[in-house]
Amino acid sequence: MAGLRFFTFSQVAQHKSNKDCWLVINGRVLDVTKFLEEHPGGDEVLLEVAGKDATKEFDAIGHSKEAQNLVLKYQVGVLQGVNVQEVDFKGVVDKESNNKEMSAFVIKEDSAPKSIVFYEFFVPILVAGLYFGYRFLTSEDSITY
Ligand code: HEM
């Protein structure tokens, strides 16, 4: 991440007009001035959070992966005190790897229940049946004595 500059919140807060608009998403400082007119959600929403941390607002919309990748295009730096590595993990990379984990989990979930039902339900019944069968046979033996 060489070349990225560090900014404080008060520095970011100075860029809040439609001619100079910065905001923060996941610790990344973005200059979205040129993006204002291109933003599919309109420039007004961006100007409302200009100079501020817009992470919550950005996440609340459920922006697509394309939108998340687009964030990188407008990054001019990171917030001071934020671990750059941490920022990367909180951002796009993390969301993608989470999705992979989720789909792997769902695949596992599909095949698991059948064997669980067999081992957790039928095996104890089989063991109990054998036990009571054995008891029944041995008690009959004792009556004959
Ligand atoms: C650099 C930062 C941002 C980028 C690159 C970006 C990009 C996009 C893109 C590509 C879309 C189209 C839909 C999609 O692909 O998800 C979109 C829609 C939208 N965005 Fe953003 N956005 C940014 C920041 C924000 C922020 C901070 C807000 C709220 C304060 C916001 C509010 C919206 C809204 C309301 C829509 C319309 C959603 C809809 O019509 O369903 N965006 N944005």
Automatic annotation (TrEMBL):
<keyword id="KW-0349">Heme</keyword>
<keyword id="KW-0479">Metal-binding</keyword>
<dbReference type="GO" id="GO:0020037">
    <property type="term" value="F:heme binding"/>
</dbReference>
<dbReference type="InterPro" id="IPR050668">
    <property type="entry name" value="Cytochrome_b5"/>
</dbReference>
<dbReference type="InterPro" id="IPR001199">
    <property type="entry name" value="Cyt_B5-like_heme/steroid-bd"/>
</dbReference>
<keyword id="KW-0812">Transmembrane</keyword>
<keyword id="KW-1133">Transmembrane helix</keyword>
<keyword id="KW-0408">Iron</keyword>
<comment type="similarity">
    <text>Belongs to the cytochrome b5 family.</text>
</comment>
<feature type="domain" description="Cytochrome b5 heme-binding">
    <location>
        <begin position="4"/>
        <end position="80"/>
    </location>
</feature>
<dbReference type="InterPro" id="IPR036400">
    <property type="entry name" value="Cyt_B5-like_heme/steroid_sf"/>
</dbReference>
<keyword id="KW-0472">Membrane</keyword>
<dbReference type="GO" id="GO:0046872">
    <property type="term" value="F:metal ion binding"/>
</dbReference>
<dbReference type="InterPro" id="IPR018506">
    <property type="entry name" value="Cyt_B5_heme-BS"/>
</dbReference>
<dbReference type="GO" id="GO:0016020">
    <property type="term" value="C:membrane"/>
</dbReference>
<protein>
    <recommendedName>
        <fullName>Cytochrome b5 heme-binding domain-containing protein</fullName>
    </recommendedName>
</protein>
<feature type="transmembrane region" description="Helical">
    <location>
        <begin position="116"/>
        <end position="137"/>
    </location>
</feature>
<dbReference type="Pfam" id="PF00173">
    <property type="entry name" value="Cyt-b5"/>
</dbReference>
